[in-house]
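Can you please make up a protein's amino acid sequence together with its fold in C-alpha cell form to help me picture the idea?
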Amino acid sequence: MTLTQKYTAFRTFTSRAWALTQPYFVSEQKWQARGLLAAIVALNLALVYMAVLFNDWNKLFYDALQEKNADVFWQQLGRFAWLAGIFIVLAVYKFYLTQLLEVRWRAWMTSHYLTRWLANHAFYKMELTRFAAAPNTSGHNPDNPDQRIQDDINQFTSYTVSLTMGLLNAVVTLVSFVGILWGLSGGFAFSLGGSAYNIPGFMVWMAVLYCLAGSVLTHYIGRPQIALNFEQQRREADFRHHMVRVREYSEAIALDRGEAVERGQLDQRFGLVLGNYLDLIRAQKRLVWFTSFFGQAAVVFPFVVAAPRFFSGAIQLGELMQIASAFGQVQGALSWFVDNYSSLATWRATTDRLTSFEASFQALAHQGKGPEATDSEALSSQDLHLELPNGAVLLHQASLHAQAGDRILLRGPSGAGKSTLFRALAGIWPFASGHVARPANSMFIPQRPYFPNGPLRNALAYPQEATLYSDTELQDALRRALLPGLVDRLDEPGAWGQTLSGGEQQRLAVARVLLKKPRWVFADEATSALDEAAEQSIYQTLLNHVQQAQGALISIAHKPSVAEFHTQQWTLEKLPQDTPARFALRNSAVGQQGA
C-alpha cells in the first residue's frame, strides 16, 4: 500500500470513527454529555498541574536530604501530605465521572442501535442477506448484530473515552513539562572537525528521539494485533451464537441424537477461537518484549544522560531528581502511542466492526423496502415482482385479488415461494416491488410461531400487553384452540417455544388469533403438526371466526383435508426456463386446474 493509499484509508477510518462518536454529543442528552466531558477534561488538566507541583517538590525535598536540612525536610513532608490529598480527590472524581460518561454513552448508543435494528424489520432483513450473495446489499452483511450491540458498543465507548483522555493528558503533560526539562537539561557541548557545537535542551531532544524510535518500532511490531482483534471478536461471537442455537433447538437435537455433531461443531468453532487467540497472544508477547525493555530503559536513561553534570558538580541531587522526574513525564507523554498500542488495536478492531454495522443500516436504507402497501377492505396486488435474496425471480408482474368472504388455498411445489408470497403480502419481504393493498385488521400465522419466555398469558397476548385482556378472554381462546390443559397455567412462567410440542405451539398461535379477533387470517402451514381430527376442528373454528368477522381466510397447506375449508385456489405453477420468473400464479376453484 502506497503512502497516499495509507493516508486515504486513515482519513476514511477517522471520518467513520467520528461519525460514530458525534451523535451522542449532539443528541437530546448533549448537555449532560458535554458537561461530563468538560468536567473530565478539567480534572485531567488539574492532575497534570499536580504533577508539575510534585516535580517542583522533588527538587526541594531531595536538596533538603542532600544538605541534611531537617526543617525543610519536615516542611516538604507536610506539603506532600496536602498535595497527595488533593491528588487523591481529583483522581477519584476523574475515575467516577469517566465511568459515568462511559455508561451513559453506552446506554444511549445501545438504545440508538436497538431502535434502528428493530425498526422497519432491519433485524429480519439483515438475517436474510447475511448468507445470500444479493447484489442489492452492497456486501454489507454483518455477523452477530447482538454481539455488536452488546459488546462492541461497550468496548467502543470505554476505549474511546479512556484513550481520548489519555491522549489529552499526554499532550498537556508534554506542554507542561517540556519547558521545565528544557530549562533543567542545559546544553550539550561537543567538538567536531575542529568546531565547537552546543545543543540546547539536550534532554528534550533525547526524549523525542527515544520515543520516536520506540513508537515506530511499536507500530511495526504490534500492527498484526488489529486484524487479530477483529477476527477474535467475530469468532467469539460465532461460538456463542452456536451455543444459543443448541439451547433453542435442544429438543430437536436430543430427538435426533445430534449431541456428537453439535459437540463437533462447537469444538470446531472453539478451536478457531483458540487458534486466533494464540496468534493474538504471540503478537502481544512480541510487543510486550519490546515495551518492557523500552519502559525499563526509560527509568535509567535520564540518569545516564544527566550523570556527568551531577558528578561534575554542575547540578545537585534535587535537580537531578527533578530532571529525572521531568524527563519521565515528557517521555511518558511522548510514549503514549507505545504504552497504549494494544488498546488502540482493540479499539480499531471494535470501531471497524461498528462502522461496518452502521454501513449495513445505510445499505438497508437503499435496499428494496418491499412492495408499496396501502390499507383497504380487500386484498389485491398489481405488478407484483418477487425475488429471492440471491436475485432469482419467483414471480413477475403477478396480480391477485381477494375480498371479504373468500376462502383461498395457496398451493404449489415446495420451494415455489408460497411463504415468500405471504411475507410480501405482509409487507416484510424486501426483495419485492409493485403495489399491495391489504386489509388493516389482519393477522399472519407463521410456520414457526414465536413465544417469548415468561408467563403463559404474555406468550398468548404477544406482542400486545396481557393486561389488555381478561382472564376469561384468555382462557376462552385457549379452550377454543383445543388447549384446555393450559387454561389454569396463565401465570406459569416457561420457555413455551421449547416446552410445548409442535402441535401445541401451533394451537397456541391459533389461540392468539382467536383472542385478538382479526377480520382476515393468513395461515402458513398453521396445522401441519396436528392430527386430522384436531386440524378439522381448528380450521372449522378459524372459518367460523372469519365468517362472523366478515373477513377472509387465506391458507398455505399441503394436506388435502384442508382444501374442503376453501372455495378458491391460488396455484404457483412452474414456468419454462426462458421466462422472466420461475413461477406464475393461477386462480381456480378448489379441485380444478387452470386459470
Q: What stands out?
A: The first helix runs from residue 3 to 25.
